[in-house]
Amino acid sequence: MAKVLIIEDDPEIINLLEIHLKDLSCEVLKAMDGGTGLDMAKQETPDLIILDIALPVMDGIEVCQKIRMHQNTPIIMLTAKSEEIDRVLGLEVGADDYITKPFSVREFIARVKAIFRRTKLIKESISNGTAKLSFEGLSIDIEKRKVEVNNDRIELSPKEFELLTLMASHPGKSYTRSDLLKLIWGYDFEGYEHTVNSHINRLRAKIESDMTHPKYILTTWGVGYKFNEEL
Questions:
Q1: Arch. (CATH architecture) of 3-103
Q2: At the topology level of CATH, where does 119-227 sit?
Q3: pTM score, whole prediction
Q4: Whose C-alpha in 26, 28, 99, 161 is 20 to 30 A from the C-alpha of 5?
């Protein structure tokens, strides 16, 4: 049973999230301020943290920063603000995903399921002895979430890392944009394919030496993308 910690100061939102997390057979822990939430994150070692940005005692950004100093626990941030800067800041300090309030229950469940799928992939990779992937000039440490190109550390966003890890774990396998939306973002519906394209472009910009002739992430024309199986 997955253990989920909700750090949120709105009782109604806590109750709503708790109901649907329990429907997913999760054990739910709750904290209503940042300081208590940080302590519980350290003591309880949850499998997922739902973290509001606007919190009493300590805000969500600081909580996320402190958690990331010691733990790689997946974090979904909640924010009532729609400004891009809040979303970017949350991701830069180590959040895996974010949801802007008000959000639909369907969207929330999709994001949670996507996180659990990614966690399962990491655990399977570790148990199968494939937690570290090496290719020509590229190394990926899945457990430590560390990527190096020609021995230089490359900083990837959580979604960029998940895209790279998924495809690199299955070289030669082509993924449609819909496949990637479902596996990485948890979206099981159309209309967000541009999200995949933009993330692939940013990922390539970081790991490829020549964007016009990519070495690692290849385009499968008429289908989607794949990791080069010839490396």
A1: 3-Layer(aba) Sandwich (3.40)
A2: Arc Repressor Mutant, subunit A (1.10.10)
A3: 0.71
A4: 161
